C-alpha cells in the first residue's frame, strides 16, 4: 500500500517545519531553545500586564511597593499560567496516546467534569474543608470518571476515530448533568460556572502553590512517556514487550486525573488546551512522545500566556476569564485543524 | 397506560390547590369579599392589565414583591421553589404551593392553582406571554437604572391592587427618611466599591447595577466608573482593588447566599493586596447580607434593611 508514503510527503509539503527538521536534524535543539526564549519573553510581558503600576523604571529604582506587587501578584500569576498550561497540555497528550485517539483530552472524556462534581460534593457536604481535602476528593472523582471512560472504551467493539471522542463527550455530558442538577438544587450554579471557566484573576502568593504538584506530575509523565506510547498500541503488544499494560494504564490514569483535579481546584477548567496543543505538536513534529512532551509543554505554556494576556488587556482594567478567550481561540484553531485533516485524507 | 397517571396527578393537583385555597382563606378572606368584582387597570413593564382588586389567590415569582406583601400584612398563595431567608421563612413550608423555580414557572401547577393574579419580575419576565394566558399577569420589575423611583412606583401598584395605598405611602416615607440620613453620612465617607465574591473570584458592580442602590440612591461616591450592564458585574483582580483603593468595600458573598460557609468572602479577601486598601485599614469592609441583596432585593421591608446595612458601614 502506498498510503503511508503519500501521507508523509503530503505532510512534508504542507509543513515547512517538518521539511526543515528532516533535512537538518540537529537544528531541533535550536528550535527548542528559540521556543523557550519566546515563551520566556511572553512570561516577561505577562509580568508587566496588570492594573497596578509596575513599570521597569519603578522596579529599577527599587520602589518597594512595586516589588511587593511583583512578588505578591505578578510572579504567582505568571507561574500559575505556565504551570497550568504545561500540565494540561501534557495531560491531553498522555490521554491521546493511551487511547490512541487525537480528539481526546481530559475535558472531553469526563475527567474534568468528574473533578468538578467532586469539588461540588465537598462544598455541599463539608463547606469548611481545607483545600487539600477538596483537591483529594476531586482527584478521587476524576480517577473514577476517567476509569469509567476507559472501561466503556475497552468494551466498544470498534474504536473508530470519531466514536471514541463521542463516547467521551457523552460520558462527560452525563456526569456534567449530574453536577448541574446538584448545583441547581443547592443554588450553586454560579459557583459552578466559576469553576468551569478557568480564571487566573484570583491567583496571588499563597493561592497557587498547589500547582507545583502538577509540575512534578508533568515531569513524571515525561519520564514515563515511552511507556504510554507502547501501552497505546494495545495490551497484547505491550505484554509481548515484557511490560505490564495494566500498570502503565493505571499510571496514566492517575497522572491525568491528578493534573485535572489540581488545575480545576486552583484555577478552574482550561478547555481545548489539551486537545489542540498536542495536535499541533504532532502535525509539526510527528508522534514520538518523548520528543513531543517538551514541545507540548512549551506550546501549552505559550498558548495560555497569550490567552491570559489578551484576557487581561482586552477590557482593561477589568478581566475576561482565560477560559473564555481560550474557547474562542481554541475553537477557531481546532476547527482549522479538523478542516486541514479532512483535506489531507481527501 | 397514560390516563390513570393523569387522573392521579390531576386529583393530586386538585387536592393541593384546595389545600392552598383553604390555607390562604384565613388571611385575605375579609378583604377579598369586600371588593369582589372590582378591577383596577395596572400599567407595568410589559403592558397594561386589568387586575382584580384584592385578588384572592396571588402567585408571585419575586421575593421582593413577597417581602413587600409581608410588610403590608398580605400573603402570597404560590411562590417559587427556593431556600427562603429568615424574613420569609414561612414560605419554606411545603404547604405553600410551589410554582416552579424563580426563573422557570411550572405552568401545570400554576394552571391547576387557578390564581387570580400572577406577579413576575426580571427573572421570570420572559414567561409573561404564557402566564398571562393562565391569569392576569403583571411584570413589576424594578428598573435598576433608577431603582428608587421604580421601586416606589411598583410598591404603589401593589398598594392599588391590595387597597392599602396609605400603608404603602407610610412605609415609603419611612424609607425616604432613612435615605436622607444615609445620604448625609455618605457625603463625607469617601469612595466606595461594591464587589461580589464567588468561587474565589471577584466581580465589581458600579452605579446603575443591581447593587447600584448604594451609589445611585444613597450617594456613596464611586472609585471607578464601572459600566456593568444589567445583572452582571465586571471581573476584576486584586490589583484592581489595591489600585482603586476604596475607603469602604461593600461585599456580597455569593457563596454564602447558598447556605454554605458564611466566611467564604472573608477567606477570599484575606490577602496582602486587600489589606493595603483604606477600607481594610479603617475596618470598613462591610459584609452585606447576601440574601437581602442578592435574593430578595427591592421590597418594602428589605429596602429598609439594605439601607440600614449600608448606613451602618458609613
How would you sum up this structure, described in words?
The complex is a heterodimer of chains A (346) and B (314). With 346 residues, chain A is mostly helical. Chain A contains 16 helices and no strands. In chain A, helix 14 packs across helix 16. Chain A is globular, with a radius of gyration of 21 Å. Chain B has 314 residues and is of the alpha/beta class. Chain B is built from 13 helices and 13 strands. In chain B, strands 8, 9, 10, 11, 12 and 13 form a six-stranded mixed sheet that branches. Chain B has a three-stranded parallel sheet with strand order 3-6-7, sandwiched between helices. Chain B has a two-stranded antiparallel sheet with strand order 1-2. In chain B, strand 1 and strand 2 form a beta hairpin. In chain B, helix 5 packs antiparallel against helix 6 and helix 6 packs parallel to helix 13. Chain B is elongated. The chains are: A mainly alpha (346), B alpha/beta (314). Chains A and B meet through helix 5 and helix 9 of A and strand 9, strand 11 and helix 8 of B.
Properties at a glance:
heterodimer; A: 346 residues; 0% strand; disordered N terminus; B: 314 residues; alpha/beta; 6-stranded mixed β-sheet; 45% helix; elongated; ABC_transptr_permease_BtuC (chain A); Iron complex transport system permease protein (chain A); transmembrane (chain A)
> Regarding quaternary structure, how should these chains be classified?
heterodimer
Biggest interface = A-B, 35 and 32 residues
Radius of gyration of chain A: 21 Å
**Total strands of chain B:** 13
How many helical stretches of chain B?
Answer: 13
Could you say which structural class the secondary elements and strand pairing of chain B correspond to? alpha/beta
Order of helices and strands of chain A: HHHHHHHHHHHHHHHH
Kindly estimate the percentage of residues of chain A that lie in beta strands according to DSSP: under 5%
Distance between the termini of chain B: 65 Å
Low-confidence segments of chain A: 1-15, 17-21
Sketch the major β-sheet of chain B.
6 strands, mixed
Mean pLDDT of chain A: 85
Class of secondary structure makeup of chain A: mainly alpha
The share of residues in helices of chain A is: over 70%
Uncertain residue ranges of chain B: 1-5, 15-34
Can you give the mean pLDDT of chain B? 85
Shape of chain A: globular
Our estimate of the beta-strand percent of chain B is 15-25%
Total number of strands of chain A: 0
Amino acid at each position: 500500500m502506498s498510503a503511508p508514503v503519500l501521507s508523509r510527503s503530503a505532510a512534508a509539503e504542507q509543513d515547512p517545519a517538518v521539511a526543515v527538521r528532516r533535512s537538518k536534524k540537529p537544528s531541533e535543539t535550536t528550535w527548542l531553545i528559540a521556543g523557550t526564549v519566546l515563551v520566556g519573553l511572553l512570561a516577561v510581558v505577562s509580568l508587566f500586564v496588570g492594573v497596578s503600576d509596575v513599570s521597569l523604571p519603578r522596579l529599577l529604582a527599587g520602589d518597594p511597593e512595586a516589588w511587593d506587587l511583583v512578588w505578591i501578584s505578578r510572579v504567582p500569576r505568571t507561574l500559575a499560567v505556565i504551570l497550568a498550561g504545561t500540565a494540561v497540555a501534557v495531560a491531553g497528550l498522555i490521554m491521546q496516546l493511551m487511547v490512541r485517539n487525537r480528539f481526546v483530552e481530559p475535558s472531553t472524556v469526563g475527567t474534568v467534569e468528574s473533578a468538578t462534581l467532586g469539588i461540588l460534593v465537598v462544598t455541599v457536604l463539608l463547606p469548611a474543608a481545607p483545600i487539600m481535602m477538596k483537591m483529594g476528593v476531586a482527584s478521587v472523582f476524576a480517577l473514577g470518571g476517567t476509569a469509567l471512560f476507559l472501561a466503556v472504551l475497552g468494551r466498544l467493539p470498534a474504536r473508530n476515530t470519531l466514536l471514541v471522542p463521542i463516547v467521551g463527550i457523552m460520558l462527560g455530558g452525563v456526569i456534567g448533568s449530574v453536577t448541574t442538577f446538584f448545583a441547581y438544587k443547592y443554588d450553586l450554579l454560579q459557583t459552578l460556572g466559576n469553576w468551569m471557566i478557568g480564571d487566573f484573576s484570583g491567583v496571588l502568593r499563597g493561592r497557587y502553590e498547589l500547582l507545583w504538584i502538577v509540575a512534578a506530575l508533568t515531569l513524571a509523565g515525561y519520564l514515563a512517556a515511552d511507556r504510554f506510547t507502547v501501552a497505546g498500541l494495545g495490551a497484547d503488544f505491550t505484554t509481548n514487550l515484557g511490560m505490564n499494560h495494566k500498570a502503565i494504564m493505571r499510571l496514566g490514569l492517575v497522572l491525568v486525573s491528578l493534573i485535572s483535579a489540581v488545575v480545576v481546584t486552583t484555577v478552574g477548567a482550561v478547555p481545548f488546551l489539551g486537545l489542540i496543543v498536542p495536535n499541533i505538536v504532532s502535525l509539526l513534529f510527528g508522534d514520538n512522545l518523548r520528543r513531543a512532551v517538551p514541545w507540548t509543554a512549551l506550546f501549552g505554556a505559550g498558548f495560555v500566556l497569550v490567552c491570559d494576556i489578551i484576557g487581561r488587556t482586552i477590557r482593561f482594567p477589568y478581566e475576561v476569564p482565560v477560559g473564555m478567550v481560550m474557547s474562542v481561540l481554541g475553537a477557531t484553531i481546532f476547527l482549522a485543524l479538523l478542516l486541514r485533516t479532512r483535506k489531507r485524507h481527501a | 397506560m397514560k390516563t390513570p397517571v393523569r387522573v392521579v396527578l390531576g386529583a393530586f393537583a386538585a387536592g393541593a390547590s384546595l389545600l392552598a385555597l383553604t390555607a390562604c382563606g384565613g388571611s385575605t378572606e375579609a378583604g377579598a369579599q369586600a371588593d369582589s368584582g372590582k378591577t383596577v387597570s395596572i400599567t407595568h413593564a410589559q403592558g397594561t392589565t386589568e387586575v382584580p382588586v384584592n385578588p384572592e389567590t396571588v402567585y408571585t415569582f419575586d421575593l421582593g414583591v413577597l417581602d413587600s406583601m409581608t410588610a403590608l400584612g398580605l400573603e402570597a398563595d404560590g411562590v417559587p421553589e427556593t431556600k427562603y431567608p429568615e424574613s420569609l421563612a414561612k414560605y419554606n413550608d411545603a404547604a405553600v404551593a410551589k410554582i416552579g423555580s424563580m426563573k422557570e414557572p411550572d405552568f401545570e401547577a400554576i394552571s391547576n392553582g387557578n390564581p387570580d393574579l400572577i406577579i413576575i419580575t426580571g427573572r421570570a419576565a420572559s414567561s409573561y406571554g404564557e402566564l398571562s394566558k393562565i391569569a392576569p399577569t403583571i411584570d413589576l420589575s424594578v428598573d435598576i437604572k433608577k431603582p428608587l423611583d421604580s421601586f416606589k412606583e411598583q410598591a404603589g401598584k401593589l398598594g392599588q391592587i391590595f387597597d392599602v395605598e396609605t400603608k404603602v405611602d407610610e412605609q415609603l416615607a419611612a424609607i425616604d427618611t432613612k435615605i436622607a440620613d444615609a445620604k448625609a453620612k455618605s457625603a463625607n465617607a469617601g469612595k466606595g466599591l461594591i464587589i461580589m465574591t464567588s468561587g474565589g473570584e471577584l466581580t465589581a458592580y458600579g452605579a446603575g447595577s443591581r447593587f447600584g442602590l448604594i451609589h445611585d440612591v444613597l450617594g456613596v461616591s464611586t472609585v471607578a466608573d464601572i459600566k456593568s450592564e444589567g445583572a452582571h458585574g465586571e471581573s476584576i483582580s486584586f490589583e484592581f482593588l489595591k489600585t482603586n483603593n476604596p475607603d469602604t468595600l461593600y461585599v456580597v458573598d455569593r457563596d454564602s447566599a447558598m447556605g454554605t460557609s458564611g466566611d467564604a468572602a472573608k477567606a477570599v479577601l484575606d490577602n496582602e493586596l486587600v489589606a493595603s486598601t483604606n477600607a481594610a485599614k479603617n475596618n470598613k469592609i462591610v459584609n452585606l447580607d447576601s440574601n437581602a441583596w442578592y435574593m430578595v432585593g427591592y421590597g418594602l421591608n428589605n429596602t429598609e434593611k439594605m439601607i440600614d446595612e449600608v448606613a451602618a458601614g458609613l
